[in-house]
Write a structure and sequence with these properties.
This protein is of the alpha/beta class. About 45% of the residues lie in helices and about 10% in strands. The chain has 2 domains: about 10-195, 3-Layer(aba) Sandwich (Rossmann fold), CATH 3.40.50.300; about 200-290, Helicase, Ruva Protein, domain 3 (Orthogonal Bundle). The protein has 13 helices and 5 strands. The chain has a 5-stranded parallel β-sheet with strand order 2-3-4-1-5, sandwiched between helices. Helix 5 (about 110-125) packs parallel to helix 7, helix 9 packs across helix 10 and helix 11 (about 235-255) crosses helix 12 (about 265-275). It starts with about 25 loop residues before the first helix and ends with a helix. The structure holds adenosine-5'-diphosphate and magnesium ion. Adenosine-5'-diphosphate binds near residues 31, 80, 237 and 240.
């Protein structure tokens, strides 16, 4: 029906480019112990999956099982996108990331076709297909009489069809797993729950972002411990944003005081305070209450697992 090479899709073909993963799990992704355990197990199982379905061709008798569907669930900024790319790297596969925006089109019916194209590209290039903000795509199918976009429903149906026919690895990432359509939920083979970093993970995140060459006013271990203790409720992305913000501030202060620049906890603290006021970052850390709940996992609750 659609001529693959000469259709309106060519305008957005660049959105379906696979790439070699740029992040390494052990090195670049800081996870809580619990999430780390889950993702390691997931990777181990996916390796077996490849042996069983690809090398031994078990797919010939179990079509449905030849697609592994991983769901990354957790608050924004906790490293889901980062980890998905690193996971592709662990499996020595390329990576094809997509958001709903990459699939959307003003042309009626085009979204389904774009989705088909993405799946095809992933198969051709043996890429891990990653759907960011998947809840927008996988939410319950709603009757058109309720006024919901019929294109979206069609796209969801296409997603089910494509998942059934696919042979490969698909990762979904979402902050709102509960909203998934039941049909999709039942197809998820691996679940990894991301959570806000605990103090130990925050310490490693600060350590990662306060790169070595940044001049410090106090011993590194001391500064990192202060930063980790002073940032409950912040996500990895928030910590990156705070560091981004603290550095120019520190330089400016030093310039004004005509002193050499040295990072100390006050710069970090100011950046955290600013973030909590909602003037930067994901906004998620703006609510100090998140600190109290940092050890519990909202994720589990939302999934009905706890
Ligand atoms: N767990 C983490 N480990 C290392 N860096 C992180 C982590 N979480 C967030 N970051 C930083 O924040 C950025 C955005 O995180 P991202 O992976 O997009 O989060 P999510 O997909 O969960 O919203 C990352 O590119 C990285 O720089
Ligand atoms: Mg993301």
């Amino acid at each position: 029906m659609v001529d693959d090479k000469r259709n309106p899709l060519s305008e957005i073909n660049t959105a379906y480019q696979t790439r070699a993963p740029r992040h390494v799990l052990a090195q670049d992704v800081v996870l809580t112990e619990r999430t780390h355990r889950q993702i390691s197990e997931c990777i181990a199982l996916l390796r077996f999956h490849r042996t069983i379905y690809d090398e031994w061709d078990f797919a010939a008798v179990d079509h449905q099982g030849s697609t592994a569907i991983v769901n990354f669930f957790g608050p924004p900024g906790t490293g889901k996108t980062l980890a998905a790319e690193a996971l592709a790297g662990e499996l020595e596969m390329s990576f094809l990331p997509l958001t709903i925006g990459d699939l959307e089109s003003s042309l009626k019916g085009q979204m389904s076709k774009n989705l088909q194209k993405a799946f095809r590209r992933a198969r051709e290039e043996q890429a891990v297909l990653f759907f960011d903000e998947a809840d927008a795509l996988l939410g319950r199918r709603i009757s058109v009489s309720q006024g919901i976009d019929s294109d979206m429903n069609a796209t969801r149906n296409t997603m089910m069809t494509e998942l059934s026919a696919h042979e490969g690895l698909v990762i979904f990432a979402t902050n709102y797993a509960r909203d998934y359509d039941d049909a999709i939920k039942s197809r998820i083979t691996h679940q990894v729950t991301f959570e806000l970093p605990d103090e130990a993970a925050r310490l490693r995140l600060w350590d990662r972002f306060i790169v070595e060459k940044i001049p410090l006013a106090v011993p590194r271990a001391e500064l990192l411990a202060q930063a980790a203790a002073g940032s409950p409720g912040l996500s990895g992305r928030d910590i990156l944003n705070c560091t981004r913000r603290a550095l120019p501030r520190m330089l400016l202060d030093a310039e004004r005081a005509e002193m050499p620049p040295r990072l100390d906890f006050s710069h970090i603290e100011a950046a955290i305070a600013q973030l909590r006021l909602g003037t930067g970052g994901s906004g998620q850390a703006a609510k100090p209450k998140a600190a109290a709940g940092e050890e519990t996992t909202i994720a589990g609750h939302l999934l009905g697992l706890q």
